[in-house]
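Repro:
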Amino acid sequence: MKDDMRLEDVGRKEETHWNIKSNLQRIILHIRDLFIQTTRIITSKEKLREHARTPLYENAYYLMAGSVVSASLGLIYWIVIARIYSPAEIGLASALISTVGMLSSFSLLGFNLGLVRFLPEDEDKNGTINSCLTMSGLISMMLSIIFISGITLWMPKLLFLKENMVFSLLFTFFAIIGSILFMQRYVFIAFRSVKFNFLQQIIANVLKIPLAIVLISLGVLGIFLAYGSALLLAVILGNVLIRIILPGYSPLPTIKKKVINDMLHYSFANYVAGIFGGISNFILPLMVLSILGAEANAYFTIAFTASMMVFTVPCAIATSLFAEGSNVPEKLRINAIRSIKLSFILLIPLSILIFLFGDKILLLFGRAYSENAFKLLSIFIISAVPISIIETYVSVERVRRKVGNVLVTYVIMATSTIVMSYLLMTRIGLVGVGIGWLIGTGIAALVVTTRQVRFILEM
């Protein structure tokens, strides 16, 4: 009897060993195919064109390009502003702009993701788009009124918002416009036409520069008007571009209860999950400031901001995967594989460049940043790999409407990142934050990898 049990145990171990070995072999084959396909694409103009025209890749590239262009033009904008406006005016205007952006973002309530998931299969696309735009506009108006009403409590330096009716009305109006612009972005993502949003971003970021110069005599109001007017023009352009994709579309204030009710659970669950997904970005700087001090926080901010540009790659690809999966759900698995492959194709050379020249790039901010932020930046860059795995998994689960899995994944990532960063920061300093971030994203990636690999290998 004992011999039979031993033989059975040995058989199970051998079977487990064989399964692990078999899965590893299949993963190695996928990696080998990745390099072969990459070489073929790079060395063939025809395959390069075919690659660029594939919706998954095309939209991912436009999303990446949009982030780079917005960041670059935004930097140019503030450089120009700094030369013609006083520091006090810039300080107040930047606070207004940041607050408008925050309120506009909060007002989405996840309906932006609901649009991407449900719009492709919706029969009444006009009603769905307008209902989401109207909801976000109303919520942003409500949030703006609440913010202005209690401004003496949370931001007394912006008290002039409450005292000056012109500023109050403009602040509320631009918050509404900002929320509409955010929502239009996801309309284009849902229709797999991100190139139109890319055009919007260029228009908004370019126009505010000459507008700020023309309105210089208005001081703080001039900067704020330039910013808001550029948003308004981008929204008007967006309505025109939506009509190209959806002939007959009219941007009318509408709230269809059935549309909202059908999307509410999915959208709000994604909204809550998104809060956990991004909460580390807000908490870590505060932790560094309170524990390690202002100087360390400056190094952290530069390293983290630089790494966020790299994280744009897997996040853009995952967003494109979400749109593709919503439009063509039967190709979700093959597109998930393509997404992971593309992430690695782009991240490997980009990471190598940063490892080799990152310290030189940081010299642009000063020698102290090069000496104190480079190690942290290098650790953040390594975490792009687990982030790719996490974001691909999240997009797949969003398409499959398993938002609970998305929430659990982000909660695990946020909790482990914050806890590990705190513990390591207090022991080994600033580098501990990077290691904590890497461990946190790594733990979340490990948790989802089993499901991810099983899902992909079903191909």
